[in-house]
Amino acid sequence: MKHEKIRITGLFFVFLTCVSLIAVSGCVTPGGGTVDMETFARCLTENGAVMYGSQSCGFCAKQKEMFGENFVYVNYVDCGMNMNSCVSEGIRGYPTWKVKGNAYEGLQELATLGGVTGCGIPVTNESSY
Asked: What are the phi and psi torsion angles at 9 (to 5°)?
């Protein structure tokens, strides 16, 4: 009985350690590995994800903030500067993400973007957007 309690306590601490490491690391891939936000942003672009937005869009600004300095790795089209591209893609509002021919309108959670691209499931310390 004493050895069983020690084993359970040990497993509990291993579990807490793993959860803590995942929370600090940035993102969790479907296979269980971790990736940082730069890798995640690059993965979105490599998998054809494109964000359409405009400079005057408050939700676009919030979406960009989710990536922080790593937004530079996201394929982004400013519809204010490239209206023809946005019209030809059928963009009706901002932000809109296009992934594999599907449109995702409005502010998207990073987990959603990771799921539709196969880039992983981000873990952040902030509350959900």
From this structure: -60, -45
- pLDDT per position as a tens digit, 24-35: 334 444 545 456
Q: Are 32 and 102 in contact (CB under 8 A)?
A: no
Q: What is the pLDDT of residues 1-16, one digit of tens each?
A: 555 555 554 444 433 3
Q: CA–CA separation, 126 vs 129, rounded Å? A: 9
Q: CB–CB of 76/51 below 8 Å?
A: yes
Going along 1-129, which residue ranges are E strands? Answer: 27-28, 34-35, 50-53, 76-78, 96-99, 102-105, 121-122
Which among 101, 51, 97, 59 is positioned nearest to 76, based on CA atoms?
A: 51
Closest to 79 in 3D by CA, of 61, 94, 99, 62: 94
Question: Do 81 and 52 contact (CB within 8 A), yes or no?
Answer: no
